[in-house]
Amino acid sequence: MSLKARSLKGAFFNLSANGAGQLVNFVVYAIMARILGVEEFGLVAICLMVVEFCNLFVTVGVSQNLIQRDKWDNEFASLSFWFLMAVSLAIAVLMFAVAVPVAWFTYSELAAQLIAALAIIPLANGVRLVHKAKMERDFLNKRLAAYDTAGVLVGGVVSIATALTGFGAWAIIFGKIVQAFVSTALTWHGSTFRPHWVKDKTHLPEIIHFAKPLIAMSFMNFFSQRTSNIVIAAFLGAATFAYTSVARQGFSVLNNLTFQPLNRIALAGLARVSDDKLSDTFGRVVSMTAVFVTPVYFGVGAIAHPFIDLVFGDKWVDSAYLLSILALQTPCNVMAYYLPNLLIARGEPGAAFKLNLINLTFNFLLPLAAVPWGLYAVISALVVANYITLILKFWLVSRSLDVNLSLAFKETWMFTFVGLIMFAVVLYLERFHVFGLDNIFLELPALVAVGGVIYCGGLLLFFRRKTLKIINEFKSGKKQKKKGKTPLAEDTVE
């Protein structure tokens, strides 16, 4: 098997594991939301966000360096391992010294205890990452995928079992810790790498130098995506944050199951396409995304109330309103999602960094200004911020690249138009109980069916030629991918 084929196969297994893990996590998340109270569920969500931030210091940079090197060097790998151990231990100490007292005084003694327990996770990741990098270099992605999935499954079972026996918020923490230990133990067992003590620290500056810009970029990504979460957690409390977390969970899973697979196709195409066809290719990428993603996101927003009630329980009704509001940013998500990749693929990482800076600024300032008016105002401000940043992002990208981004709007407006009509109609039918169905298992399929008919019927009735063209291009791209060719970029490279 060729190197390219092995790489594609590895990427497939990574994606499959991620998708399976996301679905399992979603199921566990839904069960835990039903069992736990709103306040303690919110505390756990805040604590996990803190740990996610701390993990950035460990999970970014070092393993990527090992993967991209020409040859595997056990001396270099061992030095990387001990460097990661030192960093992960420092992060754990820092969590005890900073995060734990902050949580104690800001929220509760329970929050401090939860963060203290979660400090073990960066340590587990530090132990695992070099071994994981070795397996990825050896194209053992299928085995890695199995290890990750096993960790998620075992951790999920532990969380549910301990929750049912009355451990409350600790149930999720126990599950996350077990998940980390299972994945680490399996990866250590499956890897041929075994670290040894290294006296020569000559390569240490190289390790640090390679990791620093990646960590900086990850920090920016983290804060640009979670700034509004931080605002809500800091100013509106744990219970309010819980409602936001539940509302976003559905979209988080959808993102991993829709945008991420399409992103792999898009990145390959945008990297290889010639400059004179860049605008056209970007427009095609966005349109292929819009035709499939738009109805899913608008649809979930329209059926938010029965969906939240069915999956999470009726105590999360406030999350349903938030879910419907968040669905309104779908056009922004579709048109802006590929912009960082577009810049990176064309050799403009500095401009990609500025995109995240724009996100960070507006996603912080507007929600912060809306805090006095409550949670719904904050989420609405976030939606408005997305539309403002979309305009600024388009302006920045057009300055960095010779690309006509107005094509993105021209290629997607019809899907947004029909999607909004579907959203409004289905939301009206659901809110006013037009069908008169008391059984949620009958109501949901009926609403989904009506939404599907409106969306598909609207496109085929008013935009038939354009829709069929995009669907055929998507099918053609999938066939090319199976043959080992690069979709979208075929016959367009210089």
Can you tell me about this structure?
- The protein is mainly α.
- The chain has two domains: 200 residues, no CATH class; 248 residues, no CATH class.
- The chain is 83% helix and 0% strand.
- Helix 2 runs parallel beside helix 5.
- The protein is globular and about 70 Å long.
Give a short overview.
By secondary structure, this protein is mainly alpha-helical. It has helices at 3-35, 38-59, 62-68, 74-106, 109-118, 120-137, 141-164, 170-190, 204-235, 238-272, 278-302, 304-311, 317-326, 330-336, 339-345, 349-370, 375-400, 406-431, 440-462, 464-482.
Class from secondary-structure proportions: mainly alpha
Overall number of domains:
2
Strand content: under 5%
Radius of gyration: 23 Å
Identify the notable features of this structure and list them briefly.
disordered N terminus; globular; about 500 residues; about 0% strand; mainly alpha
SSE topology:
Elements: H1 3-35, H2 38-59, H3 62-68, H4 74-106, H5 109-118, H6 120-137, H7 141-164, H8 170-190, H9 204-235, H10 238-272, H11 278-302, H12 304-311, H13 317-326, H14 330-336, H15 339-345, H16 349-370, H17 375-400, H18 406-431, H19 440-462, H20 464-482
Helix pairs in contact: 1-7, 1-10, 2-4, 2-5, 2-6, 2-9, 2-10, 3-6, 4-5, 4-6, 6-8, 7-8, 9-10, 9-16, 10-11, 10-13, 10-15, 11-13, 11-14, 11-18, 11-20, 12-13, 13-17, 14-17, 15-16, 16-17, 18-19, 19-20
